[in-house]
Amino acid sequence: MKFMKLGTRSDSFYTEQATRSLVSDIPPDLVIKINDTTYLLHKSPLLSKCGLLLRLGSDISDSESVPLELHDMPGGAEAFELCAKFCYGVSINISAHNFVPSLCAAKLLQMNETIERGNFVGKLESFFRSCILEGWKDSVSTLQATEKLPEWSENLGIIRKCIDSIIEKVLTPLSQVKWSYTYTRPGYNRKEHHFVPKDWWTEDISILNIDLFRCIIMTIRSTHVLPPQLIGEALHVYACKWLPCIKKAKSSGSSASQTEESIRVSLNIERE
């Protein structure tokens, strides 16, 4: 999995009685409250990169310590702290696991190029295009991460772009599949097989929630590129992972056709 490293300063953030601050010789002059966490920070690095904080902080004099309440921060305090560390130049790692909340928080804070060149949003979007969407597991993991922030992810186009990337790779000819994928079927040893199995993609997308999974399957199905049997195998893999009743029915002796039909009904997908 790819990651992007930003900043060079060591992490000096610390917690004291539910208050987050960082080691500094300069007294804090900016108080930010996110749910149950209070941050004691500095106007200088944050207001120069965050358009929202610049606007909200302009009404606060240097002698005041009125907290700015950002309780609607997508991703909560953890996502905000990544943005704050970027402002301070503290070293952070961005990957498919924390990209979604980072971008959503940076968008809310208005960390755009219009505020400062080389700002956080621009770097995140570049990483998304050049690394995450180019990778198989990165695209799937990022799409899974959108489940916690569905509205933000939908509005920012993250979901649609990840789905398009995943479908493009699923429809890639087997001879051109060069990326890493998960395949743990009994009896399969990758070292002994020099070919890519036709259903190489099914196990990785089975980690998605049913709405995202169904969207991918329906779109793949509509292209008529893959045979119906392969779509059925993807449904079977998903059902074995998430639908205990289907797994139990299979183990009790139900036929393969009965099991597949139960899966299709559960996912509301008609036969070809």
UniProtKB/TrEMBL annotation:
The pathway noted for it is: Protein modification; protein ubiquitination
InterPro entries recorded: NPH3/RPT2-like, NPH3_dom, SKP1/BTB/POZ_sf
A Pfam family of the record is NPH3
Which UniProt keywords are listed? Ubl conjugation pathway
* Ranges for domain NPH3: 199-272
Secreted as UniProt keyword:
no
Q: Which family does it belong to?
A: Belongs to the NPH3 family.
Q: What's the protein name?
A: NPH3 domain-containing protein
What lineage does UniProt assign to this protein's organism?
Eukaryota, Viridiplantae, Streptophyta, Embryophyta, Tracheophyta
